[in-house]
Amino acid sequence: MRIGFGYDLHKLAKGRKLILGGVLVPSEKGLLGHSDADVLLHAIIDALFGAAGLGDIGEFFPDTDKKYKDISSSILLDKAAKLIKGAKYYINNIDAVIVLEKPKLSKFKKKMAGNIAGVLNIPKGKVNIKAKTNEGLDATGKGMAIAAYVVVCLGEV
Ligand code: MG
């Protein structure tokens, strides 16, 4: 077994859609970024690359490359999954924490997990999504940003 850890943070801004785990979440603000800024999927991709010893998301999908402008991060996750498979690993499980003050994600967490499992072609029960507030403290707590922390466990094929 190999463990991988991923982290990401994006700033919130008006006029952007909020996409988390590939799911459109109704919100007055969305995340800023070169791609769709899906902070959860970016942290998952980094955790996958980390577990496989492949480096990080910026090496594979640089934010200076025009072809990734406004791209759905689900496409990046699919590409990352193929690289993991090509390196002879399978995904045992994924556990994630999204840190945000609002909106509440309770209605969306299952859909995110199902969506992520679908992209990765693994059973839904292998993906667990949690959401936390930062109690009004720091940038995430003040509603200026959303962060995600992810741990994955890969097995060798
Ligand atoms: Mg990112």
Layout of helices and strands, plus pairs?
Layout: E1 2-14, E2 19-20, E3 23-24, E4 29-31, H1 39-52, H2 57-60, H3 73-86, E5 89-99, H4 109-120, E6 127-132, H5 138-141, E7 145-156
Parallel strand pairs: 5-6
Antiparallel strand pairs: 1-4, 1-7, 2-3, 5-7
Helix pairs in contact: 1-3
The structure holds magnesium ion (MG).
Residues 8, 10, 33, 39, 42 line the site of magnesium ion (MG).
Characterise the protein shown here:
By secondary structure, the chain is an alpha+beta fold. The protein has a single domain (2-156), classed as 60s Ribosomal Protein L30, Chain: A. 31% of the residues lie in helices and 31% in strands. The protein has helices at 39-52, 57-60, 73-86, 109-120, 138-141; strands at residues 2-14, 19-20, 23-24, 29-31, 89-99, 127-132, 145-156. It has a five-stranded mixed sheet. Helix 4 links the parallel strand 5 and strand 6 (127-132). The protein starts with a strand and ends with a strand. The chain binds magnesium ion. Magnesium ion binds at residues 8, 10, 33, 39, 42. This is 2-C-methyl-D-erythritol 2,4-cyclodiphosphate synthase.
**Radius of gyration, Cα only, in angstroms?**
15 Å
Number of domains: 1
The CATH architecture can be named as: 2-Layer Sandwich
Bound compounds, please? magnesium ion
Total number of strands: 7
Named CATH topology = 60s Ribosomal Protein L30, Chain: A
Shape: globular
In the CATH scheme, the class would be Alpha Beta
Distance separating the two termini: 10 Å
Helix tally?
A: 5
The H-and-E topology, N to C, reads as EEEEHHHEHEHE
Q: What amount of the residues lies in strands?
A: 25-35%
Would you identify the CATH H-level superfamily?
A: 2-C-methyl-D-erythritol 2,4-cyclodiphosphate synthase
Main-sheet strand order equals 4-1-7-5-6
Kindly state the percentage of residues in helix: 25-40%
The main β sheet shows up as:
5 strands, mixed
The average pLDDT score comes to: 97
What are the low-pLDDT stretches, counting only 5+ consecutive residues below 50? none
State the secondary-structure class: alpha+beta
